[in-house]
């Protein structure tokens, strides 16, 4: 249990998270983490709700500025761009964020499927690590899903102009909880092989996107869709040329070659 001699510390935590959101909306991860932490710790339900309410109140004390600014500048409290509004379950969130061929998180980073599965094992009590790891797993999974919902509510949810779904970068450390299960409790050859293969898949996609051989559908210079990578092979590009471009695009590979 997290003991707090001064309940106002929870309000201060919400205030800090709310201030972060004013800087950039992706810092909503901080508010989500604070809220989940408040709800999953405490001696009883009333104490948890009190902590969560203090976090919300602290955040609201500064976040009221944001909808007011949006209304003045763009005519709507929920606008992020002119004529574009946030939609919590719009734009296919969170399914598109996870599985769309356009920067779908698990398609570009398949190793994280095992990370989520590892968190699931923690929640089911299959790791033998007690309730503490279960609480950590709940916090990690809840904040991950909340962050995906927030990112998916944005008109440019896919994060155009960069490799993969870079909007989800802040939650990568949370999923380390799931990886730890596979590296400690289920550390057989099969799990290590699958983790390595998933990591190499991501690295290969990244290097290919840097070669400029991927079909550039939107003019951003980076392949947005998994289907764009087929162009490299359908176009008959020799493997020697692909390997040469990959080496040239990587400082590490150039240094090793």
Task: Summarize the structure in words.
- The chain has 257 residues and is mostly helical.
- Helix content is 61%, strand content 2%.
- It has helices at residues 8-23, 28-40, 45-63, 65-74, 95-99, 105-108, 111-123, 130-152, 176-184, 189-210, 230-234, 239-249, 251-256, and strands at 79-81, 84-85.
- A hairpin with a 2-residue loop joins strand 1 and strand 2 (84-85).
- Helix 2 runs antiparallel to helix 3 and helix 7 crosses helix 9 (176-184).
- The longest helix has 23 residues, at 130-152.
- The model is unreliable at 1-5 (pLDDT under 50).
Outline the fold blueprint.
Layout: H1 8-23, H2 28-40, H3 45-63, H4 65-74, E1 79-81, E2 84-85, H5 95-99, H6 105-108, H7 111-123, H8 130-152, H9 176-184, H10 189-210, H11 230-234, H12 239-249, H13 251-256
Antiparallel strand pairs: 1-2
Distance between the termini: 53 Å
Q: What is the total tally of β strands?
A: 2
User: Which range best describes the helical content: under 10%, 10-25%, 25-40%, 40-55%, 55-70% or over 70%?
Assistant: 55-70%
- Largest β-sheet summary: 2 strands, antiparallel
Could you give a short description of this structure?
This protein is mainly α and 257 residues long. The protein has helices at 8-23, 28-40, 45-63, 65-74, 95-99, 105-108, 111-123, 130-152, 176-184, 189-210, 230-234, 239-249, 251-256; strands at 79-81, 84-85.
